[in-house]
Design brief:
The protein has 285 residues and is an alpha+beta fold. It is built from 8 helices and 5 strands.
Length: 285
C-alpha cells in the first residue's frame, strides 16, 4: 500500500513464523503465525478465560488437560496397585483419546488459519497438505503421534500379551508417538521463538511451548526406559518409565492450563520493536 513498507522475516526451516510491516507513521506491525491462528476472530468466542464451551481454543485446553491428568494418574504406582494393571491400562487409553481429540482440534485450528480459508468456509477441506507452513507440520505431526499412542495404549489393555506382541504393538507405537510429540513440540517452540532459542518470559505462548517441549522430552525418556524385550517381555526400567510419563503429563497439564489465558489475552498489544526503539504491534499486517 502507499506509504507502507513490508519487511518479511523468515523464522527458518523454509517457513514464515512472522512478518514485520512498517506503517507510514513508522510503527512496526508484526504478524505472527501462532498469534494469528489463536486469534482468528477479533474477540474470544464468548465466555471467560476459564469457562467458554463455545470456543474451540477452550476445548483444546480442556481436552489436553483431562488427557494429561489421566496419564499422570496412570503413572502413579499407588494407582496401579489400587486398580490393577488392566484398569491402569484403560486409564492410559482413555487419556490418549482425550489427547487425540485435542490434537485434532489443534490441527483444524491450523488448517482454518491458512490463507484464504476464511473466504469460503463452506468449501473447507477436512485434511490438507501445506508443507510450507510450520504450524501445519507441528499440528499434523502431533496429531499423528496421538494416533500412535491410541494404538499403544489400546493394545496394552489386552490381557496375556506375548513378549513379541508387547514389543511390536505396545512399545513401538509408544516410541514412535513420543518421537512425533518431540518433533511437534520442537517445531512449535521454533515457531514461537522464530528460531531455536529466545527469551520471552512475558509471553504465554513461550511458556506453553517450553513446558510442552520439556514434557515431550520426558515422554521420550519414558519410551526409552519402557523398552519391552521381545524375548522376555520385561521392561528396561519400569520406575523410570513411570517417572518420565508422570513428568511429561504434568508438563502438558501446565501447558494446557496456560492455553486458557493465551486464548483471551488482547488480540493486539504493543511491545518494544526488536533491535530498535520504534513500537512493534502484534496483529494483522
Amino acid at each position: 500500500m502507499h506509504g507502507q513498507r513490508r519487511a518479511f522475516r523468515y523464522g527458518g526451516l523454509g517457513a514464515v513464523t512472522y512478518v514485520d510491516h512498517r506503517r507510514a507513521d513508522g510503527v512496526v506491525v508484526r504478524w505472527e503465525s501462532r498469534h494469528h491462528r489463536k486469534h482468528l476472530t477479533a474477540a474470544p468466542d464468548g465466555g471467560s478465560t476459564w469457562w467458554a464451551p463455545r470456543a474451540r481454543g477452550w476445548w483444546i485446553a480442556v481436552l489436553f488437560a483431562v488427557g494429561s491428568v489421566l496419564f499422570a494418574l496412570g503413572s502413579v504406582p499407588g494407582y496401579l496397585s489400587a486398580v490393577g494393571a488392566r484398569w491402569d491400562s484403560v486409564t492410559f487409553f482413555i487419556g490418549s483419546l482425550f489427547f487425540t481429540s485435542a490434537a485434532f482440534l489443534t490441527y483444524r485450528e491450523a488448517v482454518d488459519a491458512a490463507p484464504g480459508a476464511a473466504e469460503d468456509p463452506a468449501h473447507r477441506r477436512f485434511f490438507v497438505y501445506q508443507p510450507r507452513r510450520i504450524d501445519w507440520w507441528a499440528t499434523a505431526v502431533q496429531f499423528a503421534g496421538t494416533l500412535y499412542f491410541n494404538v499403544s495404549t489400546g493394545v496394552a489393555t489386552r490381557a496375556n500379551l506375548t513378549a513379541q506382541a508387547a514389543h511390536q504393538h505396545v512399545w513401538r507405537p509408544d516410541a514412535v508417538g513420543s518421537v512425533c510429540f518431540l518433533v511437534a513440540s520442537g517445531l512449535a517452540w521454533f515457531e514461537v521463538c522464530h528460531g531455536w532459542a529466545a527469551w520471552r518470559p512475558r509471553s504465554w505462548s513461550w511458556w506453553i511451548t517450553l513446558v510442552n517441549l520439556l514434557g515431550s522430552v520426558a515422554f521420550g525418556v519414558s519410551a526409552v526406559a519402557g523398552y519391552v524385550s521381545p524375548v522376555t517381555g520385561e521392561l528396561r526400567n519400569a520406575a523410570r518409565a513411570n517417572l518420565g510419563t508422570f513428568v511429561g503429563a504434568v508438563c502438558f497439564l501446565a501447558g494446557a492450563v496456560l492455553l486458557l489465558p493465551e486464548r483471551t489475552r488482547e488480540a493486539s498489544g504493543q511491545v518494544t520493536a526488536p533491535g530498535g526503539g520504534s513500537r512493534d504491534t502484534i496483529g494483522a499486517p
